[in-house]
From TrEMBL:
<dbReference type="GO" id="GO:0051213">
    <property type="term" value="F:dioxygenase activity"/>
</dbReference>
<protein>
    <submittedName>
        <fullName>Catechol 2,3-dioxygenase-like lactoylglutathione lyase family enzyme</fullName>
    </submittedName>
</protein>
<dbReference type="GO" id="GO:0016829">
    <property type="term" value="F:lyase activity"/>
</dbReference>
<keyword id="KW-0560">Oxidoreductase</keyword>
<keyword id="KW-0223">Dioxygenase</keyword>
<dbReference type="InterPro" id="IPR029068">
    <property type="entry name" value="Glyas_Bleomycin-R_OHBP_Dase"/>
</dbReference>
<keyword id="KW-0456">Lyase</keyword>
<dbReference type="InterPro" id="IPR037523">
    <property type="entry name" value="VOC_core"/>
</dbReference>
<feature type="domain" description="VOC">
    <location>
        <begin position="7"/>
        <end position="121"/>
    </location>
</feature>
Amino acid sequence: MATLITGLDHFQVEAPAGCEEAARAFYGSFLGLPELRKPAAFEKNGGVWFGLPDGRQLHVGVAPDFVPREKGHPALRCDDIGAFGAHCDAHGVPYVSDAEADVLRVFLKDAFGNRLEVVEGSHPSVLL
């Protein structure tokens, strides 16, 4: 069978109405992601879009009945998990470290209580 999926374009995390400034503070200022212009058709929906260094996107979307995601989560990559932990410490952002998945990683919550993972490098992919 031919490969139908060629990659990941974006992922979306949910947030409550009025989330835009907190999203900009967390994803923009704290994580250092540049804000992207949303297509005009989506501006009325609220939320904020950000760019990742590899060209993919992170969308913060408004959910009417928002509930923070405590299990499902995006995993972002970094080159130095120690430096990322120090950045969290300097900004008072709590996190939990582990290496259970054979990679150094931390778990933290965004401004809305959604779970995020940050890994050093990447999770290994082993085909079955």
